[in-house]
């Protein structure tokens, strides 16, 4: 089946790209395996020069790439251009720090293990398959590719089928910057063909960012093949507001957290859990601000919320809201599909959600905010931890005891105090529970796909 760019703003098909044949897939895996043997012998300095050159390409083409991203998946143009810049910064970060992150680690007192010297070293594994989503078409890929290539691995990309132009840009990016041919290769294949690539003995590991079902499938195949896997899956992150918080800043951030990327971010605040003492005031203003958002063509600078990336995603979001409303939830604003072409959904705030509504436990991937009234701090924590997800969280308080207590007790891969969750290249990123395992970014991210080898010398 052909891959297509379907503009979510209009619903029109912009570009059709034919998938790779089995022979082409084989050729690309072979190129990746050959490049891995070469790349592991190059120096950090050489790889850093190539990586910085690739970052230069992104910076030079930021405006055009931003428009490509917006046309393929619908985010506001300023956010698309910012994604390109963030990707370039991450590439420079790993170019600068990879050698330090992967330096040999000597044992302080080797005599304790009967040696004159003992140390550990990090070595690349080889070709790593990345199965990536459409919501950040460049950033999600680069945050894998930059550390993987700087470690001496090669990358194989199975990108989402609705962003084929971004996938093909990435296919040539690193080779244009000087990396050996085959160092990074896109595979234009369907989901059904992923398992065979993971099982290929030349492929040494796999990383996936995507849905929970996709993660379970990839993890099962990797486990059967005894291969390393890193999974970053869904999230239904709590945004907890307590009476001691700066409510003005919390409100401004809450709106931004919910609508960033048109609400299609795994780490977006999705469930707004507000202490009863400030619930009415917070929710009234939050609803007012959500109702005033400018929805429209994401290529226009004044647009704050663009379309959902796909019709199926928009319809699934609408089903979650309709299910909650039918079971007694109260929609404060939004809750409908606008009468426009494209895959838009009105910014929505919904409260009094019954426990049997799907929205309680499922991820709302779009501009829909669920609000919950918490009786006290213990009730806020209960609501926050009741889902099967555990990606990130945001807590708003100016009480040091509350800060410490929530930090220690939230089931999440990260806790942000008085700020919205953001992925930073300097900090590890990942989740627990059904949000996945393993970490990306920072030093741990580059070490995930390395062999940690122990060396002992008499």
From TrEMBL:
**Presence of the UniProt keyword NADP in the record:** yes
Metal-binding found in the keyword field: no
Return the protein name: Aldehyde dehydrogenase family protein
Keywords carried by this UniProt record: NADP, Oxidoreductase
Q: Which organism is it from?
A: Georgenia thermotolerans
Question: InterPro entries in the record, alphabetically?
Answer: Ald_DH/histidinol_DH, Ald_DH_C, Ald_DH_N, Aldehyde_DH_dom, ALDH_GabD1-like, GABD/Sad-like
Known PANTHER family for this protein? SUCCINATE SEMIALDEHYDE DEHYDROGENASE [NAD(P)+] SAD
Task: Enumerate the spans annotated as Aldehyde dehydrogenase domain.
Answer: 4-455
């Amino acid at each position: 089946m052909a891959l297509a760019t379907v503009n979510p703003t209009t619903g029109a098909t912009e570009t059709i790209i034919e998938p790779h044949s089995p022979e082409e897939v084989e050729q690309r895996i072979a190129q990746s395996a050959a490049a891995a043997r070469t790349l592991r012998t190059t120096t950090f300095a050489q790889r850093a020069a190539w990586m910085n050159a690739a970052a230069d390409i992104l910076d030079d083409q930021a405006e055009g790439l931003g428009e490509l991203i917006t046309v393929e998946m619908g985010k506001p143009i300023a956010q698309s251009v910012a994604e390109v810049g963030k990707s370039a910064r991450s590439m420079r970060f790993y170019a600068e720090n990879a050698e330090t992150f992967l330096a040999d680690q000597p044992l302080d007192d080797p005599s304790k293990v009967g040696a004159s010297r003992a140390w550990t070293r990090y070595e690349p594994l080889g070709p790593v398959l990345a199965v990536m989503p459409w919501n950040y078409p460049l950033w999600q890929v680069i945050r894998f590719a930059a550390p993987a290539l700087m470690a001496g691995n090669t990358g194989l990309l199975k990108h989402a089928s609705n962003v084929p132009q971004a996938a093909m840009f990435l296919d040539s990016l690193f080779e244009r910057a000087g990396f050996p041919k085959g160092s990074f290769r896109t595979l234009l294949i369907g989901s059904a063909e992923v398992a065979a690539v993971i099982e290929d003995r030349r492929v040494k590991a796999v990383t996936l960012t995507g849905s929970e079902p996709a993660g379970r499938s990839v993890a099962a195949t990797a486990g059967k093949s005894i291969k390393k896997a890193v999974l970053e899956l869904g999230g239904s992150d709590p945004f907890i507001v307590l009476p001691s918080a700066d409510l003005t800043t919390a409100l401004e951030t809450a709106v931004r957290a919910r609508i960033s990327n048109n609400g299609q971010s795994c780490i977006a605040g999705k469930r707004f859990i507000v202490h009863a003492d400030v619930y009415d005031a917070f929710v009234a203003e939050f609803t007012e601000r959500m109702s005033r958002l400018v929805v429209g063509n994401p290529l226009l600078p004044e647009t704050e919320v663009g379309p959902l990336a796909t019709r199926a995603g928009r319809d699934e979001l609408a089903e979650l809201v309709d299910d909650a409303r039918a079971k007694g939830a109260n929609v404060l604003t939004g809750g409908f599909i606008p009468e426009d072409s494209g895959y838009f959904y009105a910014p929505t705030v919904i409260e009094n959600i019954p426990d049997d509504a799907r929205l309680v436990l499922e991820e709302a991937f779009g501009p829909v905010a669920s609000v919950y009234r918490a009786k006290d701090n213990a009730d806020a924590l209960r609501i926050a931890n009741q889902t099967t997800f555990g990606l990130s969280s945001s807590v708003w308080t100016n009480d040091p005891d509350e800060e410490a207590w929530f930090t220690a007790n939230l089931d999440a891969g990260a806790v942000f105090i008085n700020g919205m969750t953001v992925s930073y290249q300097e900090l590890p990123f990942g989740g627990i529970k059904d949000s996945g395992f393993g970490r990306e970014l920072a030093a741990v991210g580059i070490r995930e796909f390395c062999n940690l080898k122990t060396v002992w010398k008499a």
